[in-house]
Amino acid sequence: MTMSNTGGRRRPPTIHDVAREAGVSRGTVSRVLNGGHYVSPAAAEAVNAAIRKTGYVVNRHARSLITGRSDSVGFLLTEPQERFFEDPNFNVLLSGCTQALAAHDMPLLLMLAGTKDERRRITRYITAGHVDGVLLVSSHSGDPVAEELRKAGVPLVQCGKPMGPGSKVSYVAADDRDGARDMVRHLLTLGRRRIGMVTGPLDLPGGVDRLAGYKEVLGEAGIDIDDRLIVSGDYSRASGEAGAERLLAQSPDMDAVFVASDLMAQGALTALARAGRRVPEDVAVGGFDDSVAAVEATPALTTIRQPYDRISAEMVRVLLAQIGGEDAAAVILPTELVKRDST
C-alpha cells in the first residue's frame, strides 16, 4: 500500500505504482491486465510480480469504460422468490456457478424474475449492458426471455433444453429421459407393476422428458399406460403431497410411484404415511435430483442423481466461450441411479 502526501494516509496502489515497480511502461501493464497480448513473457512475469508485491486491484469500473464489458454475469431464475428458498437445487446451481466464475475473478449477480413485469424489468437491465452474459434457470415454455436476450445479442446459456422448436439458445442439461428410464426399470425389477408418476411441470423440458422416459419403459415392459396413474406437480413439496393423494384416490392398488423431484417426493412420503401405506413395503418411492431433500427424507430416497457440479461448471464454460465470441453449444450430461431405503 502506497503512502499519500496528505497526512500520511495510505492510498490504494495504482497502475503507475505497478509500472514503476516492474520497470515497464503503464501501457505494458495495461496490456497484461487485458490479456497479455503483445507482451513478452519476461515483461508479463515482472508485471504480475509487481501486482502481487504492491497489492494492486483492478478498477473494474475503469476497465469497463475501456473494454465495454461489465466483467460480471447474471444468474437469472424465472421463478417466484419463494421457490428459490424452497427448492435446494437452485441454491446448489447458484453456488456451483459462483465458484466456477470465481476462478475467472468474475462476480455473479442473482436475478429473480417470477412475474411478467419482473421479467420485463430484468430484460431491460440486462440488454442495457449491466452484465456480460446470463445463466438462465427454469425457463418455461412460452416465456420469451431467452429468445429476447438471444436476439439482443446477449450471451446466454440455459439450464435444461429449450422448449421451443429450432431454438438456437445454448444449453447444458442432465439426460432427464434416460434418468427416468433408469428409475422405472429399477422399480420394475422390484416386481412393481402399478407404478404411478407425479410429473414435473409439463411446460419445462425436465417435466416433459421424465414423463416420456416413464412411458417408454412401461411400454417396453408391455404395461399399458394408465392415465389414472399419472398426475402433474410443480416441483414443490406441497404438489408432491397433493399428487400422491390423488394417485391413491384414483389407483388404490398403486405399488410404486416415481416422483419427478426429491422435494415433491418428500411430500409424497407424507401423503403415503397419512394413508397408512408403508414405504417401501406397500409402495416403493423413487425421486429425481439427489438433492439434500433425498437424504433428509424418511426413509431416505432412492433417486436419480443430477451432476450439479458438472452442470454448473459447463454452464460457466459455455457462457464464457460465448462471451469470447464462440458459437452456441449444447451439452447433455449423464445421470446416475442412487439406491436408498425408499425402494
The computed structural class is alpha/beta
Continuous helix count: 14
Percent of sequence in beta strands = 15-25%
Q: Calculate the mean pLDDT score and round it.
A: 89
Cα-to-Cα separation, first versus last residue: 62 Å
Strand order of the largest sheet: 4-3-5-6-7-13
Question: Quick one: overall form?
Answer: elongated
SSE succession: EEHHHHEHHEHEHEEHEHEHEHEHEHEE
Computed Rg: 25 Å
Poorly predicted regions: 1-7
Helix content: 40-55%
Biggest sheet descriptor? 6 strands, parallel
Total beta strands: 14
Structural summary, described in words:
The protein has 343 residues and is α/β, with parallel strands linked by helices. Helix content is 46%, strand content 15%. The chain has a six-stranded parallel beta sheet with strand order 4-3-5-6-7-13, sandwiched between helices. A four-stranded parallel beta sheet has the order 9-8-10-11, sandwiched between helices. A two-stranded antiparallel sheet has the order 1-2. Strand 10 (256-259), helix 12 and strand 11 (284-286) form a beta-alpha-beta unit. It is elongated and about 80 Å long. The N and C termini lie far apart (62 Å). Residues 1-7 have low confidence and may be disordered.
Overview in brief:
With 343 residues, this protein is an alpha/beta fold. It is built from 14 helices and 14 strands.
Give the SSE layout:
Blueprint: E1 2-3, E2 10-11, H1 15-22, H2 26-33, H3 41-54, H4 60-67, E3 73-77, H5 81-86, H6 88-102, E4 108-112, H7 116-130, E5 133-137, H8 145-151, E6 156-159, E7 170-174, H9 176-189, E8 195-199, H10 205-220, E9 230-232, H11 237-250, E10 256-259, H12 262-274, E11 284-286, H13 292-296, E12 303-305, H14 308-323, E13 330-333, E14 336-338
Parallel strand pairs: 3-4, 3-5, 5-6, 6-7, 7-13, 8-9, 8-10, 10-11
Antiparallel strand pairs: 1-2, 12-14
Helix pairs in contact: 1-2, 1-3, 6-14, 9-10, 11-12
